[in-house]
Design brief:
With 137 residues, the chain is α+β, with helices and mostly antiparallel strands. The protein is 35% helix and 26% strand. Strands 1, 2, 3, 4, 5, 6 and 7 form a seven-stranded antiparallel sheet that branches. A hairpin with a 4-residue loop joins β6 and β7. α1 runs antiparallel to α4 and α2 packs across α3. It starts with 5 loop residues before the first strand and ends with a helix.
Length: 137
């Protein structure tokens, strides 16, 4: 049976950068139950702006990356499967800081599309997930 999801854009206008990242993390927590695969970039050129826990998360993601890192200032994870709690946790911590990140469900639907350090947050949500995001943001 196919799950009915509707596409939403999270309105971040007027939010500070920390508020945008918190909203992004809250949305990711809501869609986590549907997550099967994920990917993100790792813009190492921005690392001086990351708090220690975000830097550590980036290091975890770099270690498990499926892509050879050609540019020391920019990396990508490639598409990774959800399963290892430490890696998924690193993604949840880092994704709000990424320039590009995505999450897909087991039925291959992209349920989260994140851009520009949480400036743009696109979600495909069930009705109950939509209510949960509304309550958490």
């Amino acid at each position: 049976m196919e799950t009915l999801r509707v596409e939403y854009g999270l309105d971040t206008d007027g939010m500070t950068a920390p508020q945008k990242r918190a909203a992004c993390r809250s949305a990711l927590d809501v869609i986590a139950e549907d997550a099967a695969k994920f990917e993100c970039d790792i813009p190492w050129s921005m690392a001086s702006e990351w708090p220690p826990e975000v830097l550590e998360a980036a290091k975890v993601l770099r270690r498990v990356s499926r892509k050879k890192q050609k540019d020391p200032s920019y990396g990508v994870t490639g598409i990774l499967k959800v399963g290892d709690e430490a890696v998924w946790g690193a993604f949840l911590t880092f994704a709000p800081w990424a320039f590009d990140a995505g999450v897909w469900s087991a039925d291959h639907v992209q349920v989260a599309s994140l851009s520009d350090s949480s400036d743009s947050i696109g979600l495909r949500l069930t009705d109950s997930q939509r209510r949960a995001v509304e309550d958490s943001v």
